Amino acid sequence: MAAAAVSEAWPELELAERERRRELLLTGPGLEERVRAAGGQLPPRLFTLPLLHYLEVSGCGSLRAPGPGLAQGLPQLHSLVLRRNALGPGLSPELGPLPALRVLDLSGNALEALPPGQGLGPAEPPGLPQLQSLNLSGNRLRELPADLARCAPRLQSLNLTGNCLDSFPAELFRPGALPLLSELAAADNCLRELSPDIAHLASLKTLDLSNNQLSEIPAELADCPKLKEINFRGNKLRDKRLEKMVSGCQTRSILEYLRVGGRGGGKGKGRAEGSEKEDSRKKRRERKQRREGGDGEEQDVGDAGRLLLRVLHVSENPAPLTVRVSPEVRDVRPYIVGAVVRGMDLQPGNALKRFLTSQTKLHEDLCEKRTAATLATHELRAVKGPLLYCARPPQDLKIVPLGRKEAKAKELVRQLQLEAEEQRKQKKRQSVSGLHRYLHLLDGKENYPCLVDADGDVISFPPITNSEKTKVKKTTSDLFLEVTSATSLQICKDVMDALILKMAEMNKYTLENKEEGSLSDTEADAVSGQLSDPRTNPSAGKDGPSPLVVEQVRVVDLEGSLKVVYPSKADLATAPPHVTVVR
User: Is this model's pTM higher than 0.70 or not?
Assistant: First the structure.
């Protein structure tokens, strides 16, 4: 009777055991009640699935601890995702040892400390010897375990954003402690100092310590041989010139400033003064250009690094885009927001690749592998409005998926399922890749959500794919963005905020960094079929980069009653200090 009760309460476990699955995702509205009935822990039956390579349990407010038996029962686990639960204040018992674990995501919990016995695992021998990515963001950690580097010596990415840390343990930066660490993010903490020993992180490429309480940046940071990207915005630095530089200058310039000793004397003084004079000349030229361009305003030099987003209200737009929502999506994927962004420059170098990569990262992180939300970007010129967001039976939904031939949704899903099985058999992967990772999100759905244009063509099939018809290319400058969710309207808005702010950052980076491999004006015109226009081509203007324009998109029901408009006054309200939103 007890076994039957467990099977009834946890059918996913029985199915995973029967099909010898390597991946398991536990989420959804019924999960919280079942975990509460299990004492705030995962059911012991879960730890009798030794073939599991990937385990995710997300969005469960009653999950306070994983429970005993995880390390012993899941020895082949490669990825463990326990985000947006209620884990804390520590982990009892500790997670490790997990000898095969490569990815550990504990973000969005209530962890306050990870002391020995209540943390990630033992230090001797290492409890997580193969761990490459550790995400502890969005917790309440006051300190990091001193033995973190010994517990996970092969760590490559460490995310500590949004905690209560006031310092890093000295052991983290000792020579040879983390020889492979390439990404360190600890924004939005209370860090008061950064040790010069950070120079011992020989593989460090990206460092984000924005919005802390740092007053100095050690000159030794410039000795990190592979460092390419730093972010110290939002710190009140004693060196006010350096404070302005971190808000608007490229990493290379900041590191050079640190390398030559800043404003100090010694060997670097002449070079630093020369750099200041060159910057001063450059800013005088910029102010002169603005005056000649008719601007008539001289901005403070600290504004050089600011990003501008101009919101175009529906009432100001002669042809606003509208999304009509059909009532049947209520039972499938009820929430959607849209926006139009004009002025992106995706032509130079790797700009398009960076744009697509940023979407992938958002899907992995904020969208929680598309379980919380899914975003899609479209070439605006190929989008014919008004749009209809509706739900159709799989056999009636036709789409030309990105990189594939036209197919009905039923056929597409079946094809992806067969490809996923083939991947598992051939490569013995810990998990499938590409679109195959999201098929489980359609399990049990009688209708599939889709976005249809005025021609009757399906341009989006969330959470699986977009249409080839509206594919974003290098010549794209104006885009339609959509975010859908089965969870909440707010997560749609949060994801859209993050995407638009990221687009602004990327556009600024593209315009500031001249890259080879961009299309010439003639080539771009030939591909796009229209002449270069300063209003739509961000590279065409003579007065430097223009702000991105974000046009409001209204979402209405079939009778025309307003459901949501984005961006409203409440949206993009938490933009960082270096971003100015003009409404």
Answer: no
